[in-house]
Amino acid sequence: MSNMLRGTMLLSGASFLSKFLGMIFVIPFFAIVGTTGNALFVYAYTPYSIFISLSTVGIPAAVSKFVSKYNALGDYQIGMRMFRAGSALMLVTGVVAFLVMFLSADWIGAQQIKGEGGPITPDDIAFVIRMVSFALIVIPAMSIVRGFFQGNQSMGPTAISQTIEQIVRIIAILLGSYIIVNYFNGSITLAVGFAAFAALIGALAACLVLFWYWRKRKPFIDKKIANQKTTHDFRTVDLFKELFRYAGPFVLVGLAIPLYQLVDQFTFQPAMVASGRGATYDTELAVINNLGHKIVIIPMTIATGLSMAMLPSLTNAFTQNDQTTYTKLINQALQVIMVFVIPAAAGIAILSDEIFGSLFTLEDIEITGKLMALYAPVALLFGLITVTAGMLQGLDQQNYAVISLLAGLLVKVLFNSQFIHMFGGQGAILGTAIAAGIAVLLNLIRIKRSADFSYKQTIKRTILILIFTGMMCFVIAVLKFGFSFFLPYQEERWATTMMLFIGISAGGLFYLFLAYKSTLLEHIFQGNIPGLNRLKRKK
User: Fold this and answer.
1) Cα(21)–Cα(18) distance, rounded to whole angstroms?
2) Are the beta carbons of 438 and 407 closer than 8 angstroms?
3) At the N or C end, where does the chain have fewer CB atoms within 10 A?
4) Membrane-spanning residues where (predicted)?
5) In whole angstroms, what is the distance from residue 206 CA to residue 143 CA?
6) CA 28 to chain centre
7) CA-to-CA distance for 501 and 486, rounded, in angstroms?
8) Judging by beta carbons within 10 Å of its beta carbon (0-12, 13-18, 19+), is residue 234 exposed, middle or buried?
9) Angle subtended by helix axes 493-517 and 352-359, to nearest 10
10) Looking at residue 277, what DSSP letter applies?
11) How many Å apart are CA 266 and CA 364, to the nearest integer?
12) Is 346 strand, coil or helix?
């Protein structure tokens, strides 16, 4: 249990820092390229995210599960064989994905923008897509190294390399786009194109970090192989058969959010224009798929880290038929999501105007703030998709994760245009929420049946979390009302930032105080929260 928590904290911390940096860099990037530049970035980056998932075909996460399974059985050599074979495969698929994306850039751009005279053209999108496609040559092979380390329950290499990758990428984006726009009078399209190309620069930096870890850890892995007593004599083709059986579902799990976004991108502009809302489509899409999205998914980083850290432990327990352990893992994972993501999403919703206004702009805040407030609760559904799909994979029910995600995606595809016609940008959010909700519900039902799992404890603690979250929101609402009499936070950016700081500080501390005094945190984390025991001793 402690291994999962340590891994969760490490990966969640790295993922949070990566997402936080991704959010912060959008502020100066927005100042350089504006709303249109951010929308253009989204039009190219979402297809790239899908190509990344397709080029890896779920292999890195599947390698993590494969290595964890056979390590539990005492066979370390077969994990090394799989790592080498998988690395060669990822090099090939990465190059193929690069060629396909590069050559299809014109078609992808033409499918996302209809009509002429808008701020973004299909040629603009095609150029940025070609620039970002180069990263596909490197990232698939790099990601399998992370999967191998995670399978050995070593989360440090993934955490550190992700952080370095993001830092280097952001520095390259900001420096490159600023120089292009301000010193060479380059176009916004050229600046966004270089920003997309920075994905390759960040990936190369991460490769260097992983290579350093590999040289450091390799002797310990070799020692385990030399001392092992159990060996499975599988042919290489048999290794790949088992790997692909695990890998297929990981593809859709990784594709879930990008696919929802891609549906928006193919339907948003035509539906907004057809419903008479074409003048604001780029602003609203930038909020839903980029600016607001980067903020909303920050709470989801906990779910991402938890899912990656939980999978090896859950697979190990399920392989050894240890029902007590894997039941505790499922219970704890769900409760960790609830105790952090629910209040975070609620806080984003109630402070949406302040967040968007202080980080980006107060212009059109009646549109942008409202969209982000409606989008915030979807973070919980995104987090639950990630974690419940990880649970199904650990319970060897990965095929069912495919069914649930496809069911949700089908609803999104069928109804998204109609929702946008009826409600504008809010309709796209509604479509995503319904689709994600269906996937989560189906996953939870399958987990209950597969693991003979009871949600009774999780439901009880979730009710308590909702009560504390409601009290937190009440405190924030009172503060906003009180400060509105002498702080012009709806008009001046400095005042908006101050109100945001007050709201986050007061609301967050109040919620944590309630969760601590009620022993909710202690029960969920089973006394393993850093600093909690120290606080008790002082008391």
Assistant:
1) 5
2) yes
3) C
4) 20-42, 48-67, 88-105, 125-145, 166-184, 190-214, 243-263, 295-317, 329-352, 372-392, 399-417, 423-442, 463-487, 493-514
5) 10
6) 22
7) 16
8) middle
9) 130
10) -
11) 24
12) helix
**Block residue for tokens 């309709």:** 427
HSE-CB at 361 with a 13 A cutoff on CA atoms is 15
User: Which element (helix H / strand E) includes 193?
Assistant: helix 188-227
Token pair recorded at residue 168: 């280097």
Cβ atoms of 63 and 311 closer than 8 Å: no
> In this structure, what token pair is assigned to residue 508?
């967050």
For helices 323-350 and 456-483, give the axis angle rounded to 10 degrees: 20
d(CA 357, CA 359): 6
Cα distance between residue 445 and residue 424, in whole Å: 33
Tokens of 174: 């900001």
How far does Cα 446 stand from its chain's mean position? Answer: 23
d(CA 158, CA 160): 6
Q: How far apart are CA 439 and CA 384, in angstroms?
A: 9
d(CA 307, CA 315): 12
Angle, alpha carbons 454-304-194 (nearest 5°): 160
Give 287 or 432, the one with higher predicted confidence: 432
Residue 369 has pLDDT above 90, yes or no: no
Alpha-carbon distance 196 to 37, whole Å? 11
Task: Say what angle helices 77-103 and 2-56 make with each other, to 10 degrees.
Answer: 40
The Cα–Cα gap between 139 and 438 comes to 31
Decide: 315 and 69 in contact? Cβ < 8 Å: yes
Q: With beta carbons less than 8 A apart as the criterion, state whether 37 and 191 touch.
A: yes
Report the interhelical angle of 493-517 vs 456-483 (nearest 10°): 140
Question: For 16-30, 240-254, 458-472, 508-522, which range has the lowest pLDDT when averaged over its residues?
Answer: 240-254
Residue 111 near residue 98, CB atoms below 8 Å: no
Instruction: Please give the structure tokens belonging to residue 287.
Output: 């909020």
What are 334's two structure tokens? 């769900």
277-281, 316-320, 382-386, 452-456: the lowest-pLDDT one: 316-320
Long-range interactions of 204-211: CB distance < 8 A, separation 24+: 204/138, 205/164, 205/165, 205/167, 205/168, 205/169, 206/142, 206/161, 206/162, 206/164, 206/165, 206/168, 207/138, 207/142, 209/157, 209/160, 209/161, 209/164, 209/165, 210/142, 210/145, 210/146, 210/157, 210/161
* CA 424, chain centre distance (Å): 25
If one counts every other C-beta atom within 10 angstroms of the C-beta of residue 3, the result is 13
Distance of alpha carbon 156 from its chain centroid, rounded? 18
Nearest CA among 109, 116, 258 for reference residue 192: 109
Could you tell me if 124 and 189 are in contact, meaning their C-beta atoms sit under 8 angstroms apart?
Answer: yes
How big is the chain, counted in residues?
A: 539
Helix axes of 77-103 and 59-72: crossing angle, nearest 10 degrees: 170
Cα–Cα distance between 13 and 20 in angstroms, integer? 10
Q: How far apart are CA 535 and CA 539, in angstroms?
A: 6
Taking every pair of C-alpha atoms in the chain, what is the biggest distance, in angstroms? 75
Token representation of residue 418: 């109609």
